[in-house]
From TrEMBL:
PANTHER family: STRESS RESPONSE PROTEIN NHAX (PTHR46268), UNIVERSAL STRESS PROTEIN HP_0031 (PTHR46268:SF15). CDD domains: USP-like. It holds the Pfam family Usp. Residues 19-162, 173-294 form the UspA domain. This is Universal stress protein. Belongs to the universal stress protein A family. It comes from the Bacteria.
Length: 296
C-alpha cells in the first residue's frame, strides 16, 4: 500500500536542503531580479521566501530650546511605515504570482545598523539572495556594504545576482573557484544543492601551488573526489593569472566554459584589506555577469 500523499510530501520537504530563502531588498529596480531568481530557487527546492525590507528610521531631533524631541517625528515615522506597508503589499502580490509561499518582513532600523539588523534576521534562513543594483556608483557601493555585512554577520551563504540577469535557471554549468581556504570549503558545501543538479561543474584553480596534502601537480584532486562522491559531474581546470587579478581570471574562465553560476569563498583576506586594495570578492561582486554564491 502506498503512503498517503501528505506523508510523501512531508518526506519530500524534509529532504529539501533549503527550506527558507531570504531576499535582501536594496530598494532599487534590481530588487525585482533578486525576487524572481529567489522565486525560481524556492520552486526548485520547495522553499519559502522571507523578503527582508529594511526601513531606516531617522533618529529624533532634539529641539535645542525646548530640550524635547521634535513633535513632528511621530508623523514622519507613521508616513514611513505607511509607505513600507504599501511596498510590502506589492511584493506579496509578486510572491503570490510566482506560486511560492512567502512573506515580507519589515525591519525597522532605529539607532541600529540596518544591515546588521538584516543579517540577524537572515540567520534563520538557509540562503540569502541579493541583486547588485545597476543604477549608479553610490547605489552599488551601498549594496556592496550591505552584502559584506550579510556575508560576515549572518553565517549564511549569500547569492548575488547581477542586474538584468537573463540567464536560465537552474544553471546547467557552474564554476567553482577553488582555493585551499575555509571560505572556499564553506562555499562549496553551501552550493552542493545547486551543483548536484548541474550537467557539468568545472573546478578552477588559479596559480595553483603545493599545500600540506597535495603536490602542485595534484592540486584539486581532493575537492574533485569530494564532488564526485556527491554525484557531481566535476572536472578540474587550472590557469595562470598572467598579470590579471584572480577575479578577472575566474570571470574570464566562467565565460569560456559558459558557466551560469560561480561559487567562491568570500573575503578570505579580510574585509578591510579588500576594501582598501581590492580583492577577488570585490571583483566578483562588482563585475560578475552571472550569479555568484559566496560564503565566508
Amino acid at each position: 500500500m502506498s503512503a498517503p500523499a501528505s506523508q510523501t510530501t512531508a518526506r519530500h520537504l524534509a529532504n529539501s536542503p533549503w527550506r527558507e530563502i531570504a531576499v535582501a531588498l536594496t530598494q532599487t529596480r534590481s530588487d525585482a531580479v533578486a525576487l524572481e531568481f529567489a522565486g525560481a530557487v524556492a520552486r526548485q527546492f520547495d522553499a519559502r521566501l522571507e523578503v527582508l525590507h529594511l526601513l531606516m528610521m531617522p533618529a529624533p531631533m532634539i529641539d535645542p530650546w525646548a530640550m524635547i524631541p521634535d513633535p513632528s517625528f511621530p508623523q514622519i515615522y507613521e508616513d514611513l511605515r505607511d509607505a513600507a506597508r504599501a511596498s510590502a503589499a506589492t511584493t506579496r502580490k509578486s510572491i503570490a504570482a510566482m506560486g511560492v509561499p512567502g512573506d515580507v518582513r519589515v525591519l525597522e532600523a532605529l539607532c541600529v545598523e540596518p544591515s546588521s539588523l538584516a543579517a540577524s534576521a537572515a540567520r534563520y534562513c538557509d540562503l540569502v539572495v541579493l541583486a547588485r543594483p545597476e543604477e549608479g556608483q553610490a547605489e552599488v557601493a551601498v549594496a556592496h556594504s550591505y552584502f559584506a555585512t550579510l556575508l560576515h554577520e549572518s553565517g549564511r551563504p549569500v547569492l548575488v545576482v547581477p542586474p538584468n540577469n537573463l540567464l536560465p535557471y537552474p544553471p546547467n554549468r557552474a564554476l567553482v573557484a577553488w582555493s585551499d581556504t575555509a571560505e572556499s570549503a564553506r562555499a562549496l558545501q553551501a552550493a552542493l544543492p545547486l551543483l548536484e543538479k548541474c550537467e557539468r561543474v568545472d573546478v578552477l584553480l588559479v596559480d595553483p601551488v603545493a599545500n600540506l596534502l597535495e603536490a602542485r601537480d595534484d592540486r584539486g584532486t581532493g575537492v574533485l573526489r569530494h564532488l564526485r562522491r556527491h554525484g557531481v559531474a566535476a572536472h578540474l581546470d587550472t590557469c595562470k593569472s598572467r598579470g590579471r587579478s584572480v577575479g578577472e581570471a575566474i570571470m574570464e574562465h566562467a565565460r569560456h566554459v559558459s558557466a551560469g553560476l560561480i561559487v567562491a569563498g568570500g573575503y578570505g583576506h579580510g574585509k578591510v584589506r579588500e576594501w582598501v586594495i581590492g580583492g577577488t570578492t570585490r571583483d566578483l561582486f562588482f563585475q560578475a555577469q552571472v550569479p555568484v554564491l559566496f560564503a565566508h
